[in-house]
Design a protein that fits this description.
It contains five helices and seven strands, in the order αααααβββββββ. With 194 residues, the protein is α+β, with helices and mostly antiparallel strands. Among the domains are: 47 residues, no CATH class; 60 residues, SH3 type barrels. The strands form two sheets. The chain has a four-stranded antiparallel β-sheet with strand order 4-5-6-7, with no helix packed on it. The protein has a three-stranded antiparallel β-sheet with strand order 1-2-3, with no helix packed on it. Strand 4 and strand 5 form a beta hairpin.
Length: 194
């Protein structure tokens, strides 16, 4: 078996490459030994900025609890942390009430118009007032009491139970008023003495 010692030129190149490899391995070992001490002396912010995912978590945190979780999770320790699992289970989602599966909110329902209540037929209009004026008495000895009534320029004299102007009946005569009834509408009205 040949080891490549036939060519002195190839053997020289190989020896030179072995020396360069040994020097580079030596430098790597020396620099790795110095890095842990430098990292321990560096401030904590340097470590956070070295990990962009931890920075995003800290920036997105809104309350103290989330910041604590972000600081705890920024370490590279691969052990299972039961305290963090309990912390995650105890958080409660408080949403805004918006449905994330619909792009727009639905408008509130429009209430149906309320139909007006039907109370039946309208009430009949009030009967027209009796437009007679009571302005005096006519008393003669031995006769019934009579009154004077006026409608416009017409003057009527009537006693109790008599009909005036073919429409109104005198029901009762009092000292200060007279009670009349409209025979067409059966409406009763008290007319004061004027």
């Amino acid at each position: 078996m040949k080891l490549g010692t036939e060519s002195k030129k190839k053997l020289g190149i190989m020896a030179a490459l072995m020396v360069v490899a040994a020097i580079s391995v030596g430098r790597t070992v020396v620099t790795l030994g110095a890095k842990p001490a430098a990292l321990a002396a560096a401030p904590a912010t340097t470590r956070v900025t070295a990990q962009p995912s931890a920075t995003r978590v800290v920036a997105a945190a809104r309350d103290r609890r989330q910041i604590q979780v972000a600081e705890i999770t920024s370490s590279l320790d691969p052990t299972l942390r039961l305290d963090l699992l309990k912390l995650g289970e105890s958080t409660e989602y408080r949403g805004s009430g918006r449905n994330i599966f619909k792009p727009h909110e639905e408008p509130p329902p429009i209430p149906e118009p309320v139909a007006p209540a039907v109370a039946g037929p309208p009430a009949p209009p009030p009967p027209p007032p009796i437009n007679l004026k009571f302005f005096g008495f006519a008393n003669h000895v031995g006769e019934r009491k009579k009154i004077f009534l006026a409608q416009g320029e017409d003057v009527f004299v009537a006693g109790e139970g008599e009909i005036v102007n073919r429409r109104y009946r005198v029901l009762r005569i009092n000292p200060s008023s007279v009670e009349m009834e409209d025979l067409l509408t059966n409406h009763r009205q008290t007319i004061p003495l004027t």
